[in-house]
Specification:
The complex is a heterodimer of chains A (about 850) and B (about 120).
Chain A (H helix, E strand, L loop, with lengths): L1 H17 L1 E3 L5 E4 L6 E2 L13 E7 L8 E5 L6 E5 L2 E5 L11 E3 L8 E7 L11 E5 H11 L1 H28 L2 H24 L2 H5 L3 H26 L5 H25 L5 H4 L1 H25 L3 H24 L10 H58 L3 E5 L11 H7 L8 H5 L6 H13 L3 H8 L5 E4 L2 E10 L4 E8 L1 H25 L1 H18 L8 H13 L3 H15 L5 H22 L11 H13 L4 H11 L1 E2 H18 L8 E4 L4 E2 L1 H22 L3 H6 L8 E8 L2 E8 L6 H10 L7 H6 L22 H10 L3 E7 L3 E9 L3
Chain B lengths: L2 E5 L3 H11 L5 E5 L2 H11 L3 E5 L7 H11 L5 E6 L3 H10 L3 E5 L3 H13 L1
Parallel strand pairs in B: 1-2, 1-3, 3-4, 4-5
Classes of the chains: A alpha+beta (about 850), B alpha/beta (about 120).
Chain lengths: ~850, ~120
């Protein structure tokens, strides 16, 4: 069957081939200025170029053809075709555009000369292909068979181009794999440009569309585009060090193509600039080849990359053909027909192979990655479970109870061993509410908090809800410090339990003592308010013991708040119970009586702690305060409380002076002097130890005495002198540079310097200035008054003040303006 | 200077809070019941409110919801005596930012207020 088919094919081809005649031998030639024709011995071999026009002729034999036509291939670019003098085809004007190959001739062709007028340019001249005469259709058939390889290549390239373009877009849209998509795009560009290039070389197509300019440009555009496709492909499929240069070359190719295209479009198709500047393209292609080879060299020898092996083979083939083509183009060597398309075919195939390989590799990579991931996951799981075990081991040995539960309060599988000891059972899957909060009455409240925590989105608010949970829990008669943590990633609440039964008892004791201290401090600080509130509360209970308890709820709640501020914890506790009882309507009279008793107990306790009854002015014995201080020091970390207690012992200097104001007022009355109420201005809280300052403050009485006795004039004199009827005394207290300043000022008659001078003379005192004179008043046994009065004594007085001031490490000075007033200025260091 | 509205019917408690807040240099305004608190809030728009839970005329929770209705971003800290956690929880569920418990621990009070203010 196969043989029969072959035979039929052979016969058909033979018939076809018989229907035209080869015009081969008997060619003649002459140069333009010659008159005689020479015999062209071996057609196909170029004649030596004489830079003139060459005529070649052949006498068409006497054979019949219905539809006669000439078939010529392998001609140079510029030629005219005649049958005798009848011009069949003129390619002289259309520089660089290769002509078609089938030309119709007039029917009276027999025995006429077929003449070729050839423009010999730089190249050698002649024709190197076939010249046939026959029926046009048969010649076409002949041409198609001859060019079947090219036609197949064109179809193949177009097919690959379209297919890879489709895949490129598909991958871009669906897989978002930009690199893979680019590889396919450049391959598509390369395929299309090859198709264009080969189409331009193809004669058959010119038969159907006789526009040499179009085909020439198609070929050139193909020539310029194909390196772009190739380099782009290369750039994305190989990943070696010279990538940067490959990218430059790619850019240069694109720029070159665009520049020439722009020039071509502007200047029109007369001159083919693609051909004119082809040398640039060739140089670039050389560079391309060099870099590709270098790249492949690295790929082969350094990376042992299979892709590089495959590609380099085709690159070498293409390089050889390219060099051959270029050499042929410039007639360095003789060539008949370009075979570069076949090398490009190989290249394209290797590209397809690589692309498919690449995709496969990608898939393999993916599956390998998956496999690795799986293994890794297994390893990780193993590690995690090991870690979990490690952590569990750690937790088990920490003697702390760790457990976690989810929003259904179900306890997770993982919990520390200590939990079993705490709960005395296996707690996995149990309800946390029942288990952990067994001792808590109001489980609904706890449940509500947990629900709030699990439902709340805001993390900070979750934290707020967590604070509602108890800090301590009693589980199976033991006390536990309990911490709750919300674990965000697992949506669990973790519970950490610490046995504090031992500490608890101790702590309860310490807490109690601390509370006692706090109670005393707050009571002492707010003594008046406290006494008032206690009285008010007593009355409240007595008055309401028979009334409607419901109406008392608000008041009881308020008292609870107030008493808690005073740390009367027992009373607060009782009030809290009463509140609950009122709410639950379970209250009776005895409860209020109970409250009253508790109050009494609390007060009695407090009174013994303060050292006196509550109904008198607060005056805690010093010994009590020192006792408190010692207690606070025992309970370490109570600085704030210590300061507060110190404040109890220390007094404001102002308070120490105030009692003498009343004395001064009384004295003035006795001596018939009128004074306004003395003013004390205290800018700072000057806390002093009243024990230390007692003698000093007592001594101040002498200053006041002197002011009333000697300073302030009688009302009549004052009015005479234009002063106010009442004398004014002002006391200024302030701190400056860690020193306590006390200024006592009056607007009396002041000190009479002249009188002091007399006294100085009498007492034999030397003085150099008025200041020395004034200081006389602080001397013993000196008095400036004429009479020795009962009030001021005999000069004893101010010297006592001076002594006391000096005992405290301070100083006193006096300034006086006669007739205007006197000013005592005492300075005492704060720390004595 | 942050403005704080202290709401409590007991002047003593208000004074306690004022004493604690003194070093913070707050601009302090006061209200003695829920109704007054809501009016004061609308008038002065304080940065933060401390609100006693149980008060005459209008209690703290009612006042809280009124204030939140007026200003959903209001920062209200509930003040409560020990053992009233259920009502405080209710207040937090409604939208109170935090709560402090009597007796006041001045450090805790300041911390809570600063924390809520910085939120």
């Amino acid at each position: 069957m196969k043989n029969k088919f072959l035979m039929v094919t052979f016969i058909v081809i033979s018939i076809i081939s018989l229907s035209y005649i080869k015009l081969y031998e008997n060619w003649e030639y002459k140069w333009k200025d010659e008159n005689i024709w020479h015999k062209y011995e071996t057609p196909g071999v170029p004649l030596e170029n004489k830079n003139k026009i060459l005529y070649l002729r052949y006498k068409i034999p006497d054979i019949d053809f219905e539809d006669p036509a000439i078939y010529i291939t392998g001609t140079v670019l510029f030629f005219r075709l005649y049958v005798d003098n009848y011009l069949i085809y003129d390619n002289f004007g259309e520089s660089y555009f290769s002509a078609k190959s089938i030309f119709k001739i007039p029917t009276d062709y027999k025995n006429r000369y077929l003449t070729l007028e050839v423009k010999s340019n730089k190249r050698d001249v002649g024709f190197f292909g076939e010249v046939l005469i026959g029926n046009e259709k048969e010649l076409l058939r002949h041409q198609i068979i001859k060019e079947s390889d090219r036609l197949l290549l064109i179809s193949f390239n177009l097919f690959v181009g379209i297919l890879s373009l489709i895949f490129s877009i598909y991958i871009l849209i669906l897989n978002k794999n930009l690199d893979q998509s680019k590889i396919l795009f450049y391959m598509s560009l390369f395929s299309f440009s090859l198709a264009l290039f080969i189409m331009g070389l193809n004669q058959t197509l010119k038969y159907f569309f006789d526009n040499p300019i179009f085909w020439a440009y198609a070929m050139d555009v193909g020539k310029y585009l194909s390196p772009i496709g190739l380099m782009g492909f290369f750039y994305y499929i190989f990943d070696y060090s010279s990538k940067k240069y490959i990218k430059w070359l790619l850019t240069l190719h694109v720029l070159l193509f665009l520049t020439i295209s722009v020039i071509q479009i502007i200047k029109g198709p007369e001159i083919n600039f693609y051909v004119k500047f082809v040398i640039i393209l060739y140089s670039l292609i050389y560079a391309d080849i060099l870099f590709m080879i270098y790249n492949l060299y690295i790929g082969i020898f350094r990376f042992k990359d299979k892709k590089a092996y495959i590609f380099s083979i085709s690159i070498i083939i293409v390089s050889i053909f390219t060099i051959y083509e270029i050499m042929g183009d410039y007639r360095i060597i003789n060539w008949q027909r370009p075979y570069i398309q076949w090398s490009l075919f190989i290249l394209l195939n290797s590209m397809i192979f690589l692309t498919i390989n690449n995709v496969k590799e990608l898939n393999i990579e993916l599956s390998v990655a998956n496999k690795i991931l799986e293994n890794w996951k297994d390893a990780l799981e193993l590690e995690v479970s090991k870690r979990t075990q490690d952590i569990k081991l750690l937790l088990d040995n920490s003697e702390e109870g760790f457990l976690a539960f989810n929003k259904d309060y179900i306890i997770s599988e993982q919990y520390s061993k200590e939990c079993e000891r705490i709960f005395e059972e296996d707690i996995k899957g149990k309800n946390a509410l029942n288990l952990i909060f067994n001792s808590i009455e109001n489980k609904e409240f706890i449940k509500r908090i947990f629900d709030d925590i699990f439902n709340e989105k805001d993390y900070l608010r979750k934290e707020v809800y967590l604070t509602f949970l108890p800090n301590e829990l009693k589980i199976n008669d033991k006390y536990y410090k309990v911490k709750f943590k919300y674990i965000e990633y697992a949506d669990l609440i973790m519970v950490i339990l610490n046995n504090i039964t031992g500490e608890k008892n101790l702590k309860l004791k310490i807490d109690e003592e601390r509370e006692t201290l706090k109670k005393i401090v707050s009571v002492v600080k707010n003594y008046d308010t406290f006494v008032l509130i206690i009285k008010e509360f007593e009355n409240f209970i007595i008055q309401n013991i028979n009334s409607n308890f419901q109406s008392l709820l608000g008041s009881i709640h308020n008292y609870k708040g107030i008493f808690s501020q005073f740390h009367l914890n027992k009373l607060v506790n009782d009030l809290h119970n009463i509140e609950n009882k009122i709410i639950n309507n379970a209250i009776n009279k005895t409860d209020l009586e109970q409250i009253y008793n508790t109050l009494k107990v609390e007060i009695e306790k407090l009174e013994s702690e303060l050292g006196h009854n509550l109904d008198v002015i607060l005056k805690i014995p010093k010994i009590k305060i020192i006792e408190l201080e010692e207690k606070v020091k025992e309970l370490s970390g109570q600085d704030e409380l210590l300061t507060e207690i110190k404040k109890l012992r220390y007094k404001d200097l102002k308070d120490l002076i105030i009692p003498y104001i009343d004395y001064t007022k009384d004295l003035a009355k006795k001596l018939n002097k009128l004074i306004s109420d003395p003013v004390i201005i205290s800018k700072d809280d000057i806390l002093v130890d009243p024990e230390v300052f007692f003698d000093f403050t007592k001594s101040l009485i002498n200053i006041f005495r002197n002011i009333i006795d000697h300073g302030i004039e009688s009302p009549e004199i004052r009015i005479d002198q234009g002063k106010s009827e009442k004398g004014n005394i002002k006391i200024d207290l302030f701190k400056e540079n860690d020193k306590i300043n006390i200024i006592i000022e009056d607007d009396g008659q002041g000190i009479d310097i002249n009188k002091l001078k007399e006294i100085a003379i009498i007492n034999n005192i030397n003085y150099t200035s008025n200041k020395d004179l004034i200081d006389i008043i602080f001397m013993e046994s000196i008095s400036t008054s004429n009479e020795v009065t009962q009030i001021s004594g005999r000069g004893l007085g101010l010297n006592i003040v001076k002594k006391e001031v000096e005992k405290l490490g301070g100083s006193i000075k006096v300034e006086s303006v006669y007739g205007k007033g006197t000013k005592f200025h005492i300075i005492i260091p704060e720390v004595i | 200077m942050p403005k704080i509205l202290i709401v409590d019917d007991a002047p003593f408690i208000r004074n306690q809070l004022k004493l604690i807040l003194e070093p913070l240099n707050f601009d302090i305004i006061e209200a003695s019941d829920g109704k007054e608190a809501v009016e004061m809030y609308k008038k002065h728009l304080p940065d933060i409110v401390t609100m006693d839970i149980s008060m005459p005329v209008m209690d703290g929770i009612k006042a809280l919801s009124e204030i939140l209705k007026y200003d959903p971003k209001a920062k209200v800290i509930m003040v409560t005596a020990l053992g009233h956690k259920m009502r405080v929880l209710e207040a937090v569920e409604i939208g109170a930012s935090y709560y402090i418990v009597k007796p006041f621990d001045s450090e805790k009070v300041i911390k809570s207020i600063v924390k809520v203010l910085n939120k």
